[in-house]
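[Automated response] Your request has been received and processed.

Submitted sequence:
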Amino acid sequence: SCPNLSPVALKSISVTLSIHEFVACVSATLNYENEEKVPLEASFVFPMDEDSAVYSFEALVDGKKIVAELQDKMEAQHKYEDAISQGQEAYLLEEDSDSRDVFCCNVGNLQPGSKVELTLRYVQELPLDADGALRYVLPAILNPRYHLSGQLEDSCLDIKTPLVPLDELPYTLSMVATISSQHGIQRVHSNCPLNEASVTCGEFVFLMDCSGSMQCPMNNQDGSQSRIEAAQETLILLLKSLPIGCYFNIYQFGSSYEEFFPESVKYTQQTMEEAVNRVKLMRADLGGTEILAPLQNIYRKPSIPHHPLQLFVFTDGEVSDTFSVIKEVQSNSNKHRCFSFGIGEGASTSLIKSIARVSGGTSEFITGKDRMQSKVLRSLKHSLQPAVEDISLRWNLPPGVSANLLSPEPTVIFRGQRLILYARLTGKMPAAEATGEVGLKYTLQGKRFEDKLTFSLKPKPDADLTIHRLAAKSFIQTKDLGLTQTSAMDKKDVLKISIESGVISSFTAFIAINKELKKPVQGPRAYRQIPRPVLYKAFRSPRILCGEFYSMHKLYIILACCRQQGQLIVYIGAQWFPLVPFFYFSLKVIGGTKLMQLIDLQKANGSWDLNEDLTKILGVSLEDLLAAHPHVDLSGWATALAVVWLHTHGKDQKMEWELLERKAVAWIHTQIHSLNLHWFYYPYFLCQIC
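Generated structure:
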């Protein structure tokens, strides 16, 4: 059991996963038991991927199944409160009003000694990885979401649940998965134990989260990089990989924000060096996570002609005003694309996926042992390559039949991506053998194309209504922007589709009441909150050197500096958590590996200078290189050797330096009149640097 916690009613979570092609069907059962002598009300806040279409919620009490009905959220909440006040057992499942990827499950009037199983079911599309593999992630971490005073009055996130390290959770999690595909399965991989781009121009703006939570580690492995360290290394890679002729800027944000340049600047050696030096000084010291203000500042800037804006957002997603941010990005989607990156366990899938989707960009999540660098560079390649644009659909259907698109209108498709659209056919369906046709028109590199798909109008049997629920979820995602950001008309549509389809939204909730209870539950009711996991471990009795009281949004906390990894520690209640150090004593150097040292030396035009810093990485003395070089331009000689080193020593991280190498080779081609290319393969130096 957890120290300093009351007994926990949630004992275990069991998940049954079925994956067929690119769709996951999930059943999650939460097992509760009241070991106390008084009736309990238990509240459990947990994460859910924002693409999940939750369509069923039921309770099994003493062998009797109670199926919840999907109703208007306010009505469901009132019924729940009325039921438990009258001594009835009641169960409520609701999606958070301010974020689509947070859910709250309430168990009301759990009698002493009684057990109950609550089961929720959902379906979800699976994202496609770069190598063509499908990925399913079971969300387990829900980080504290930063919010301003006065926000979240009707939010699951406002519940002050206790936080404990992963390995100290008082309940267990188990999962059984079955996977099938008519195309065959090449391999199955788990991250936990089982027990061609053109060098186009553009404006690249990087929005980097420097809030306190970015000091947390990328994972719970010993020696893991902090999120901010991984982000710094990634930003340097991005800056080195940008194409000549583009414009760029960098914002760092927390409770406030700072921009590197008043306006986006042209990419030159001078501006690149200035930006790299400032990136190396970045710290996770800007307090909370307020992303809306810097976004608005970026969108207010005038557009640069012939340089489309590409926005890269890096955050651990711990914000509360999710729908306000999504709406801001959506309202500016006609002038930019957003590529978003969720850093670390618990990043908001609702925020990360939605801002990419509404702007025609892509989203990535960096968790566990994933390398941020490779995933971000993949997105940079997407932003540089020609994309499918000007997408439209043309339907060819029998008379009397029409199609209404439920998914958002597609705007762009990148190479390697897939397009999934949901539409509802209405009207009188003709004979069983009738077919329909849909044509996808699009523009690629100035040329117009059309692909056609013929389909049967006879629906296939589907007792689980999987496609219907995914279609409903797609429609809800388009319209549902939470309690305060959704228009009255859209709320009406969302409420209607949600209740008709049985798929939960921010305006509906599942409510179940045990009306067959023979007599009301007796005795005073105690309220219990289920703890949720955090990635970092609590510090045990740190040695305090100094301490002072601070007030942050009406929460009084004690800041204390301790001799534990030079970090500042926050004391809250009976637990210690690492926060942002005001004085950062870490001696870890960004770019400590030889690969990062080599990348750090590359110039904006893609070349390297021949100097002692480079020769230390190559493992050859400067004197030997100068004595043996082929009497051509020294920078050309140095660049050729650096490219060879990348291919021999950095081949396992090729995804991260491909764009750097492309710049280097392009620069060499411009120097070809003075570079004798056969020296690329000079055997002595290949031997030395390999």
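Summary generated for your ticket: The radius of gyration is 28 Å. Residues 537-591, 673-690 have pLDDT under 50 and may be disordered.
If you did not submit this request, please reply to this message.
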